[in-house]
Amino acid sequence: MEYFHDYDYIYLRWIGFQSDEEIHSSGERILLKFKNHKCKKILNDNRDVRGPWNTASTWTSEYWFPQMVNAGLQKFAWIFPENIFAETSAKAAMPESLTIRKFKDFENAHNWLIK
Predict the structure, then answer these.
(1) Kind and range of the H or E element at 87?
(2) Number of folded domains in the chain?
(3) Is 0.85 surpassed by the pTM of this model?
(4) pLDDT per residue as tens digits for the range 36-49
């Protein structure tokens, strides 16, 4: 997790297999950092995620995203993984919203955030 000051967004890079516990604890840390920086945008990079994490997708969609929106989230660029199991989990966690967009690469996700 890194704050990109020049672009005013938080960059999240997820790597490997993700457990429910890791997703929940990371989600809470992300929410805190997001509130502390008072930024409105996140680039969520899942290109290196492996395997499913679908048991945490409900928590992400029904708890975490609403908390982020309440904290001021306006744009969430989500780079989806190529791993089919990880992609299926990401799709299940992604609520219908104009705030959240799916991307296949960093450049397009970044460019959408900074517009």
Answers:
(1) helix 84-93
(2) 1
(3) yes
(4) 988 899 999 999 99
